[in-house]
Design a protein that fits this description.
- It is built from 13 helices and 14 strands.
- By secondary structure, the chain is of the alpha/beta class.
- The chain folds into two domains: about 230 residues, Response regulator (Rossmann fold); about 150 residues, Response regulator (Rossmann fold).
- Strand 9, helix 8 and strand 10 form a beta-alpha-beta unit.
- The two termini are about 40 Å apart.
């Protein structure tokens, strides 16, 4: 197991070095960097309404950094990583970012989860020219190099996801009567805009749209109204709590629409199991990562390395926790970019390397899906896959769907 983990680390390093630019002759260091150390940090929801996402991923992040350091770090430099709890609260997120930058002196804030905290800290980090690197948030506002050049996402943006779902429906259910449940903020509205854009001339097939507020205790009334509208296709972009409620309520009503949920709430552990696996059977979602429960990847070398890493360094973390999978991808992207930086470990070069990725395959990305960024378009994903839940795990269906 130890050898497999070591091989995994070496593979990441080789991948990064393959794409690296020519070596920098002279060292250049930004805040938090020395010949022996790179200081990084993040705030994450270890408590609060999104703790289901933050807790497992938070443990995994620290475990991955431990693994890297035990295997020599990045280009001979160990990673000094600070993780703070933002409780998925905007003022708290700003407070923690200030601490990371002004007290701890990080080179960058890395892998912050969720729309709410990332929106809150975006202006502060950009005003101070601190990289807000590889965030897990899909809002369109995070791909705005002109206004926010220091914010780089590493997650499919929600508008792209909505467009992919529309293309899927036009091909597989062109006469669908569509109802949409969405969270009444950028998280939900970006997805809805993508769905409308993708449907194009058939946008009138959206019979009803129902929104909810993040603080609402339940979305039962919205589901009842959507059912009464006579729709046969329910599409939702909601939080993990609301998604679990809607899946359960649809099942309780004896209703059987084609039910499509957002990729960010497709976690078996944190959403489908609380909702009920029987109630979840037949759900459709978008995916860009291999799923540990899918038998198709049972002998996949990347999946084996991932499971071996968790077994050794984070045994309490569920391998099929969606937030853990996403964090694993982000961490491998971090390795890639730090390797590309070489000895030019400035904030400017970190952003330059993070926004000049060309068709990179990161561990656990699905076949046909890759990461590309440019200085004028930070959106890393243009292609996603469709998956269907069979009552036990997600299985890939059909070919990759691109919005290009």
């Amino acid at each position: 197991m130890y050898l497999l983990v070591r091989r995994s680390v070496r593979a990441f390093a080789m991948l990064a070095l393959f794409g690296a630019s020519s070596a920098v002759a002279q060292k250049a260091y930004g805040p938090g960097v020395s010949d022996t150390e790179i200081t990084l940090g993040q705030s994450t929801p270890l408590s609060g309404p999104a703790s289901a996402f933050g807790a497992g991923a938070g443990r995994e992040v620290l475990a991955f950094i431990q693994m890297l350091n035990e295997n020599g770090g990045i280009n001979g430099r160990k990673i000094n990583f600070t993780q703070l709890d933002n409780a998925y609260n905007a003022p708290k997120a700003i407070e923690q970012s200030r601490k990371l930058v002004e007290e701890i002196g990080v080179l960058a804030e890395v892998g912050t989860i969720g729309t709410v905290p990332n929106v809150a800290i975006q202006k502060y980090l950009n005003a101070n020219k601190v990289p807000q690197l590889f965030i897990t948030a899909g809002g369109r506002r995070f791909n705005d190099p002109e206004t926010y050049p220091w914010t780089v996402p590493l997650y499919p943006d929600f508008q792209t996801e909505g467009e992919v779902v529309a293309k899927y429906l036009l091909k597989t259910k062109p006469d669908a009567k569509i109802g949409v449940l969405y969270q009444n903020d950028d998280y939900g509205k970006d997805y809805l805009n993508g769905l409308r854009k993708g449907l194009g001339a058939k946008v009138a097939q959206v019979v009803m749209e129902a929104s909810y507020e993040l603080a609402d205790p339940t979305i039962d009334s919205q589901i009842i109204k959507l059912k009464a509208a006579g729709i046969d296709t329910l599409i939702e972009q909601s939080s993990s709590k609301a998604a679990a409620q809607s899946i359960r309520k649809v099942h309780e009503l004896g209703w059987s629409p084609l039910h499509i949920i957002g990729g960010s709430t497709a976690s078996v552990e944190t959403v489908l199991k609380p909702a009920g696996l029987d109630a979840s059977k037949g759900l459709v979602t978008t995916q860009f990562l291999k799923q540990p429960g899918d038998p198709a990847w049972a002998n996949d070398i990347e999946m084996k390395a991932y499971k071996e890493f968790l077994a050794k360094y984070a045994p309490a973390v569920h391998a099929d926790d969606y937030s853990v999978l996403v964090a694993y991808m982000n961490l491998n992207a971090l390795v890639l970019v730090l390797q590309k930086c070489g000895d030019d470990l400035t904030r400017q070069n970190l952003i330059k390397q993070a926004t000049s990725i060309r068709g990179a395959h990161l561990p656990l990305l699905l076949p046909g899906v890759s990461v590309s960024t440019t200085s004028t378009d930070y959106a890393p994903f243009k292609t996603l896959r469709i998956a269907i839940f069979n009552g036990e795990n997600w299985t890939i269906a059909g070919d990759p769907i691109s919005v290009d």
